[in-house]
Every structure is written in C-alpha cells, then in structure tokens.
Amino acid sequence: MNFLYAAYAATWIIHITYLAILMRRYSRLRDEIEVLKKQK
Amino acid sequence: MSAPSGLTRATLAKDLRLEWRSKDAINAMLFFALLVVVIFSFSFDPTAEESRHIAGGLVWVAFLFAAVVALNQTWARELRNQVLDAYRVSPAPANSLFLAKALGNFIFVSVLEGLMTPLFIVFYNLRALGPAYQLAFVAVLGTWALVVNGTFFAAVSVRTRSREIMLPLLLFPISIPAVLAMVQATNSILTGDFSAKFWIVLLVAYDLVFTTGCLLLFEKVLNAE
Amino acid sequence: MKRAFPILGLLTAVLLTYGLYQALVVAPTERTMGEVQRIFYYHVPSAWTAFLLFFINFIASVQYLVRPKEFADRLAKWVAVAIGVLACVAAFVIKPMPYGIEPSSVATTGIAITAMYFIIRKLFSAAATDALAVVTAEVGVVFCTVVLVTGPLWARPVWGIWWTWDVRLTSTLLLWLIYVSYLMLRRFSSSGQTPVLAAALAVFGALDVPLVYFSIWFFRTQHPQPVIGGGGSIDHRMLHALLINWLAFLLFAWMVCWSRYRLEMLHRDVEEFQALEALR
C-alpha cells in the first residue's frame, strides 16, 4: 500500500514542482519588465 | 552531368581528398575504435559462450560510438571557413550538399567497420552459424541508418552550444529502432537461432523513411537563421 | 478570456478532488492486485494526456514548417482531411478489425486528428504554432514523467519487477527520451534558428514512434517476457473513476498549458522589445 501512496504523492510532487518552476520564471520575467520600464 | 549530382560528386571528392591527405579524422576514429573494442573485451568476457549472443550488441555499440566521433567533425571544417554561408547563397540545391556529406560519412564509417570487424572476430572468436552473407545487408543498411540521421543531426547541432554532446543526445533516441534491428539481426545471424529477415526489412523501412525525411527537411535546417 | 481562467481553475480543482475520491474510495478493490491497482486511475489518464500533448506538438511542428510555403501548406491540409476520411472508410470496410480494435474508435480518432489540425490552424498564427509546440512538449514531458514513475511503482508490488522492456513501456520511455532531447535542443540553440530545428526534430520523433512500436513488438514475439498491465473487461465503476480522472487531468493539462503559453508569449514580447531597443 505504501506503493499506492508513493505513486499518488509522486504524481503531485512532479506537477507541483513544474508549477513552481513556472511561477519562478514568471516572477523573474516580471522583474525584468520592471527594469525595462524604469529604463524607459 | 546535371548540376546537383555534379555538386554532390565534387563535394564528396573534395572531402575524401582532404581526409586522405590529412588523415585527421580517420586516425582519431581508428584509435578510438580500437580502444572501445579492448575496453569491451575487458568488460564483457569474450571467452564465455554467451559472448556469441551479445556480440551483435557489442559490435554495434562500438560502431555507434565510433560513428559519433566521425559525425561530429562533419560540418566543423565548413563552419570554420564560412563555407556553409557560401552554400546557402549559392543556387545549388541543399540536398546535393547533404548527400555528399552523408556519403562521405558512410564511406568513413564503413572503412572503420571494415577495420574493426577483424579485431572483433579475433578477440571474440566469432563465427556465423547462420547465413553470413546477410551480414553484408545488415552492415550496409545499418550504417546508412546511423549516418543519414547522424549527418542531419550534426547539421542541427552544429549551431548549438555544446555541439559535441548535442549530437548523440539527439541521435541516440531516434536511432533506437535501427540499433535494435542491427543488433538483433547480427545476433540472429551469429547464433543461427532466428531469421534476420524481419529486422532487415525493418532497417529498409527505417532507411527509406528517414532518408526521405532528411532530404525534405535539410534545406530548412541549412537555411534556418 | 482572462475571467475564464480562475473559473476553470476552480472547476479543475473540484474535478481532481472528485477524481481522487472516486479512485481511492468509490472504485471497488481489484480482486487479484488489491489496493495498489488504484494507481491505475492516475497512471492511465496521465499516459493518454501525455500522448495527446505530444500529438498536438507534432501537429504544431508540422504546421510551423509547412505554413510559410503555399504548396506544402495545401498538401498538409489535404493529408489531414484524407486521414479523417480514410479512418471512417476503414472503420466501415475492414471487418473484423485486427487486434480487437473497435471500428468506432478508429473513425473517431481519424476525425479527431483532422479536427485538431484545423482547429490549431485557426487558433494559432504561424509564429504562434512554435509557442504551442514548446508548451505542449514541456507539459507532455511532465505528464510522461508521471507515467514512467507511477508505472514501476505499480509494477513492483504486483508483478515483482520494476521494469520490463515490453512494447508499451519501451515506447513510452522512448517518447520521453525524444522529447527531453527536443527540450535540450531548444535550450541549447540560439533563438533565431530554434523553432525550425526543433520542429524538424519533432517530425523525426513522430516518424520514429511507429518504427519503435513495431521493432519492440517483433522483438517481444521473438523473446517473450512479462507483459505489464493486461487487457480484459473492466468493471463499470472502475471505468467511471478512470474517465473522471482523465477528464480532470485533461483540464489540468489545459490549465497548465494555458499558463505556460501566456508565460511564453510574455517572454517573447520582452525579447522582441529588448531586440528593438538594442537596435536603437
């Protein structure tokens, strides 16, 4: 049964990790946009 | 003499002549191939009876690695001297260039295989229990399968950072069915247990599909900028 | 469009929770495999979603390559239509279908392929198809990773082995490898040429998949080994749970792709802006 929980947990860990990566990329992009706006 | 085949022949002749004079690539490839055979001999005991069953795999993996060494330098010379840009602006069809490079690589890798095979036969005491003539088909079809995709992906990866590692990264996954076919066919012929016919047909299919694909897409890849 | 996002997000979350409930509580326990079999309700939908995403990537890559050229574009459109027509014809004509395939599923798949081709063509400009390709490749790899992780976790307690080189597993692994190499190519090449090179690789990958399938299939008929995951009929409650989860994951994939797509477009806008600034 541990395998069952491991599988479900692994699924969500993988998905959440990817979403976290996306969010980090998003905030970095936002920062870059702020910098560009200030330069204008 | 029509222009495209003339260009193919000229480029091929130039590459072969340059290689014959300097013998850069062929020496490196030869030594690398010899080292691979020796290391495999230490890692996979050749004296065991099982060696006949795995010999196909060993041989083709060794050829694959040696081929990658050859393929990596396919476009290096052209890139160094801005020859690729000259090809791009010339009216010559890109496929002539591709065919020349692919044929050149085919000749190089075939020479390599021709020199490595006796070593393998000696180190592993190989003897074909099945129809040995089929090995010729397997060798030609298999080498072309590796070379045609390898030349294409060499052109793709020459424009990337870490181009030397990019080539095997792109080539190996795509080549898996071909490698499986080559290895299984070779094993079938050496052990005489199964018929290699299906694998040879698969190799023919693979070669047709990917030669067509490469010829259709090479122009796009060459001109990508 | 923007308002739909949180609503759909909520719907997805609800459906995922309901799916989890269905999978863990409502669906009956499998007779031979026990509780571990419930991994099936996550493993299979993830696989279908991953394959769907990779297929969309293939269509997007083809479109990126053919749309700039009039002749190639028209040819591709006719091929897309032909696939749908041929599938419908085959469904009626070929009786009985080999390997126990349902004729209706053949027809539906063919029509779905044609429909997808034209819908994507309508919704995305030629340049945007490249963005679609990146997005579906990335999210596809994520789902495929889930498949490759949950698979062995299911196999080990039930069949005693983590892995076997049978047709399905090997083909899935190979698809994963090809698309990881696709993502590496995109990362390592400079932005001017990336779309074309990546699209070419995607097409090659797609050409490879049937060859892989056949080669492993024949290899397995020569060297039979344990097959993981059998066929057989399925209890309707299990089917219900499976379909709920598939719908939930499909929606989830859509949400993730949508977010990734917005991120990609924003990224491209910033790059374009920076390029223009550099020129000044």
Question: What does this protein look like?
Answer:
The complex is a heterotrimer of chains A (40), B (225) and C (280). By secondary structure, chain A is mainly α. Chain A contains one helix and no strands. In chain A, 10% of the residues are buried. The mean pLDDT of chain A is 91. With 225 residues, chain B is mostly helical. Chain B has one domain. Chain B has nine helices and no strands. The mean pLDDT of chain B is 83. With 280 residues, chain C is mainly α. In chain C, 80% of the residues lie in helices and 0% in strands. In chain C, α1 runs antiparallel to α8 and α3 packs antiparallel against α4. The two termini of chain C are 35 Å apart. Chains in contact: A-C, B-C. At the B-C interface, α7, α8 and α9 of B face α6 and α7 of C.
Q: Of all protein chain pairs, which has the greatest interface, and how many residues does each chain bring to it?
A: B-C, 34 and 29 residues
Structural class of chain C, please?
mainly alpha
Major sheet size, sense and barrel closure of chain A: none
* Oligomeric description of these chains: heterotrimer
Give me the count of strands of chain C: 0
Average pLDDT score of chain C? 86
Average pLDDT taken over every residue of chain A:
91
Helix content, binned percent of chain A: over 70%
How are the SSEs placed, and which strands pair?
The complex is a heterotrimer of chains A (40), B (225) and C (280).
Chain A: H1 2-39
Chain B: H1 3-22, H2 24-43, H3 51-72, H4 76-80, H5 83-89, H6 94-124, H7 134-157, H8 163-191, H9 197-223
Helix pairs in contact in B: 1-6, 2-3, 2-6, 3-6, 3-7, 3-8, 6-7, 6-9, 7-8, 7-9, 8-9
Chain C: H1 4-26, H2 40-66, H3 70-93, H4 103-123, H5 126-159, H6 167-188, H7 194-222, H8 236-279
Task: Characterize this entry briefly.
The complex is a heterotrimer of chains A (40), B (225) and C (280). Chain B is built from nine helices and no strands.
